[in-house]
Design brief:
Layout (H helix, E strand, L loop, with lengths): L23 H9 L6 H15 L4 H5 L6 E2 L4 E4 L8 E4 L2 H16 L19 H15 L7 H14 L4 H8 L4 H11 L2 H8 L6
Antiparallel strand pairs: 1-2, 2-3
Helix pairs in contact: 2-4, 2-6, 7-8
Length: 206
């Protein structure tokens, strides 16, 4: 087997792959695969929404409680982010609508404030392994060849903000980076905006 030798660790084990950004159409296709009527579907749509529209890390999303979400203000409070740092992020009205549908359904199911926002149908905290398996499964179902994973949605969020012209300090605060330099490296790794815009201005007639 290429890259593998008996008694040795496979050459690609633990390898980090570059982020793959989803297009708006690909995100829309993923969402169309998720039920808008079942409790699990409504929950999963809301969970994926906070990853994609708020740029949360999966650990931050799974650690939320209903008290942390203010739909009227359009905010989510992350009390224990990376490095145990707290921050408040913004969410758009469309995202609020999706999250609100799950909050209403979980109330109907009898889940109280002590249960995490994104809980199982038994009211227990969801495991990251479920989410990490869900996204690739949805991608396979719709024929998306890219690697689709929770952190990829965070990358997609950052990329969309950058291409919309959002200022770097705002992206930094939304993502929860300690320094602006970290955000700059993060975005340049995803897609160097100036390079893309410069190349797109070139003309060629085949």
């Amino acid at each position: 087997m290429p890259g593998y030798h008996k008694g040795r660790i496979p050459a690609n084990k633990g390898k980090k792959y570059p982020a793959e950004i989803l297009t708006p159409d690909e995100v829309a296709i993923l969402f169309r695969q998720i039920s808008t009527t079942t409790s699990i579907g409504i929950r999963n749509r809301a969970l994926i929404t906070v990853l994609y529209r708020a740029g949360l890390r999966h650990s931050e999303a799974l650690g939320l409680f209903t008290k942390d979400v203010d739909l009227a203000a359009g905010t989510i409070a992350i009390l224990h982010g990376k490095g145990d740092r707290s921050r408040i992020v913004g969410i758009d009205p469309g995202a609020c609508h999706v999250i609100g549908a799950w909050i209403e359904r979980r109330h109907q199911l009898g889940f109280g404030a002590s249960a995490t926002l994104f809980c199982t149908m038994q009211g227990t905290p969801m495991k990251a392994s479920y989410l990490k398996a869900l996204l690739p499964k949805l991608a396979r179902q719709v024929g998306i060849g890219k690697r689709v994973h929770p952190h990829g949605l965070r990358h997609t969020h950052a990329y969309e903000l950058m291409m919309e012209g959002v200022e770097m300090p705002i992206i930094q605060r939304q993502l929860g980076h300690v320094s602006l330099a970290t955000t700059a490296i993060y975005l340049n790794h995803i897609a160097p905006k100036q390079v893309i815009e410069t190349m797109r201005k070139r003309e060629w007639t085949p």
